[in-house]
Amino acid sequence: MPVAFGNMGRKSKKDRPPAIIQAVLADNLLRLRDLKFGHLTTATARNKALAVQAGTALSQVQRILDQKLACGVDMLEQLAAVLEVSPCDLITPYFARSHVSESRSSAENPKNPSPSRITTS
Q1: Taking the domains of the chain in order of start, what are their residue ranges?
Q2: 3-class DSSP state for residue 104?
Q3: pLDDT exceeds cutoff 50 at 118
Q4: Alpha carbon of 93 to those of 2, 21, 42, 73: distances in Å?
Q5: How far apart are CA 110 and CA 102, in angstroms?
Q6: Could you tell me if 70 and 61 are in contact, meaning their C-beta atoms sit under 8 angstroms apart?
Q7: Top-level class of domain 17-117
Q8: Is the pLDDT reported for residue 25 higher than 90?
């Protein structure tokens, strides 16, 4: 006789909203991707370039950007390496917004270092 348990009072992952950190990662990733691969005409082409350089599938990058996939630490490191920032920068709220505006306003140094890479003497 088969036994069915149902959902036992818990919401499935589909019913839960994405974690805040997924939204922060998606926002930063989107802005930094556009900064690095802005010469490519479509979002799909930019996603593909990011995926190829990070050594992953296009669908995985798209799902991270759509907040449908929470990436692991190893993928976070790979994406950060491609975008030339530290992994903690990708999950820092508003990091990419300040990074993009600084890069656009600084014509002599378009690649500003991330705050985590700045050393003081």
Answers
A1: 17-117
A2: helix
A3: no
A4: 48, 8, 25, 17
A5: 8
A6: no
A7: mainly alpha
A8: yes
